[in-house]
Design goal:
Blueprint: H1 5-41, H2 48-54, H3 61-74, H4 77-94, E1 111-120, H5 128-138, E2 142-146, H6 150-159, H7 161-164, E3 167-171, E4 179-183, E5 187-192, E6 201-207, E7 216-224, H8 233-247, E8 253-258, H9 266-272, E9 285-286, H10 287-290, E10 312-316, E11 321-329, E12 336-345
Parallel strand pairs: 1-2, 7-8
Antiparallel strand pairs: 1-12, 2-4, 3-4, 5-6, 6-7, 8-10, 9-10, 11-12
Helix pairs in contact: 1-3, 1-4, 3-4, 5-6, 8-9
Length: about 350
């Protein structure tokens, strides 16, 4: 039976009303996405609340995707175009094309393998047995700890850390400023980043490998930047600038630890944009970003159910490649452990 003309005419206004309603919902959903996108796209020193908001930028892809679905249902072309553009922008930031990539070494240059792990122990409360087990099970050869305390150091020794990583440079402290480096290779203290509330020690590690490969000299920085909270945000920016200056020095660098910053902070991207002296102007490489781990949060692992973010990073000179990046939860601390295998140029 063919619908009468009045029935068809009555249906059309209802469809237009529904189309408008779905399109309006899409635009409402799009408003916070657009706001965060403006903050993310403009690389200036934003105030505290914006800096903290930017930490959660990866999760904005969810309302952006929902807005596109609503726009498609609403069938308004200009709304579909707007939502598609903003969703594409979120995906571009999730899988950045401008992220640094490890340099392909010339033929004839060998590499030495090094398994690295880092953990913020949250005032030394991380479970020592789990830490030692992770080191054993994953063949970790170099471990950096932030917020290291004497209590944790004693617990690690009791759990057998001295047997698997016998070399140690340690500066324990109960106020979150302590740090430690454990290694199978000899360690040499060569400095400390100046004027930082938390210790950021620089250590020389001579990494030797099996076979005929020559040892590789490595400059290791145990990073622990101040968090961007209240009036300390200026110190946070200063801490990251000092990490960048250290990375610009000659040599092979690994700068690993708690940056209290995500890839969506332009202050952290400025660190990655550092070109180490003598390495052809190539940028630093974040092993987590290089492996596509933007949705592998490292904080918070306990406490309120916040969306997880990545504030712990393993950053290397461009001549160092990485593989096997992984994140592991450790009881007792609100940070996850991060680890990767590095290939360091020998000689």
């Amino acid at each position: 039976m063919t619908p009468s003309a009045p029935a068809v005419q009555a249906t059309r206004p209802r469809r237009r009303t529904a189309s408008i309603a779905w399109s309006v919902l899409a635009l409402v959903m799009l408003l916070p996405v657009a706001g965060v996108s403006i903050f993310r796209a403009v690389p200036i020193e934003w105030p505290l609340l914006v800096v903290q908001l930017l930490s959660f930028t990866p999760w904005v892809v969810l309302p952006a995707a929902l807005a596109l679905v609503l726009a498609v249902v609403g069938r308004r072309l200009w709304v579909i175009i707007m939502t598609s553009a903003l969703l594409a922008l979120q995906l571009l930031w999730l899988f950045p094309l401008d992220a640094g990539k490890a340099e392909t070494l010339p033929a004839g240059i060998g590499t030495v393998s090094l398994k690295v792990m880092s953990l913020n122990s949250e005032y030394g409360e991380a479970d020592a047995g789990t830490v030692v087990q992770l080191v054993r099970d994953n063949g970790v050869q170099l471990l950096t700890l932030q917020e290291h305390t004497q209590r944790l150091e004693d617990a690690l020794s009791a759990a057998g850390m001295d047997e698997v990583l016998p070399n140690r440079l340690s500066h324990p402290n109960d106020d979150a400023s302590g740090g430690a480096v454990y290694s199978v290779f000899p360690l040499e203290a060569i400095g400390q980043l100046p004027d930082t509330p938390f210790r950021m020690d620089v250590t020389r590690v001579l990494v030797s490998g099996s076979g005929a490969a020559s040892p590789a000299a490595l400059n290791l920085t145990n990073v622990h930047a101040l968090p961007p909270v209240d009036e300390r945000i200026d110190q946070w920016r200063s801490d990251l600038e000092k990490v960048a200056r250290q990375a610009a020095r000659p040599g092979n660098h690994v700068l690993v630890g708690d940056y209290n910053a995500t890839f969506d902070h332009h202050e952290f991207r400025a660190v990655l944009d550092t070109a180490p002296a003598g390495q052809d102007g190539r940028k630093l490489v974040d092993a987590g970003i290089a492996s596509g781990a933007r949705f592998s949060p490292t904080w918070p692992m306990e406490g309120p159910p916040l969306p997880g973010i990545v504030i712990d990073h393993l950053v290397t000179s461009p001549r160092i490649s990485s593989s096997g990046y992984a994140v592991h939860k450790v009881p007792g601390t609100d940070h996850a452990a991060i680890m990767a295998t590095l290939a360091i140029p020998a000689g």
